[in-house]
Design goal:
six-stranded antiparallel sheet, mainly beta, 200 residues
């Protein structure tokens, strides 16, 4: 009898957990996020490179070569930052990228990309928000000039022109330069900079 009760309770617990996990709302559910809530994962790189991709141009015959590593000495906040090491540039920014895939946005809403960066010396990087498969629709671009070895925050706000459900990347195109740079605290959210949840 006790065993039967134990099994029944276990079954009930499993059903409750399954139900909660099925109906729980996360920032990845299309249109369910809060204004100002970060829509990229591991933007502080505290979990190393999880959820991020280095698209090295050498993989596709474009010629650009880059490497990345986690740096625990040169950080803006937390314990880790991402170091992107330039080996060979092509002069064409999109030939290599650092990107977060499977990201979403809603048409007609304002979105902000904001991140902290430093570089060995001044260099340009380009915003890349793009469909992650053919026909590779570009939703938003823009240029940032990284000023040098001091950490600085960079941001850009734009109006989304399409509904995208976990089908675009948000990141930086980097093959215009081989200057090494660092990234930390990368965020993408609906709203303007003042709307960011938890902004200090």
């Amino acid at each position: 009898m006790r065993r039967t009760i134990f099994i029944s309770l276990s079954t009930v617990v499993l059903m409750v957990v399954f139900t909660l996990s099925t109906f729980a709302v996360t920032q990845q559910d299309f249109g369910k996020w809060k204004k100002g809530e970060n829509l990229v994962e591991n933007g502080d790189f505290e979990q190393d490179t999880a959820a991020w991709t280095l698209e090295d141009g050498a993989c596709c015959g474009r010629g650009g070569q880059y490497q990345w590593e986690i740096d625990n000495k040169n950080v803006e906040r937390g314990k880790k930052a991402l170091k992107v090491i330039g080996i060979k540039a092509t002069g064409t920014d999109w030939h290599a990228k650092v990107r977060h895939d499977s990201t979403s946005m809603r048409a007609g809403k304002d979105y902000t990309v904001v991140f902290w960066a430093r570089s060995e010396k001044p260099r340009e990087v380009s915003l890349s928000i793009q469909m992650q498969h053919d026909p590779w629709t570009v939703y938003q671009g823009g240029q940032f000039m990284l000023e040098g070895p001091e950490w600085k925050e960079y941001s850009l706000t734009f109006r989304a022109t399409a509904d995208v459900d976990k089908d675009m990347w948000v990141g930086l195109a980097i093959a215009q330069s081989d200057v090494t740079f660092w990234l930390d605290d990368f965020r993408f959210f609906e709203g303007e900079l003042k709307d960011e949840i938890g902004r200090e």
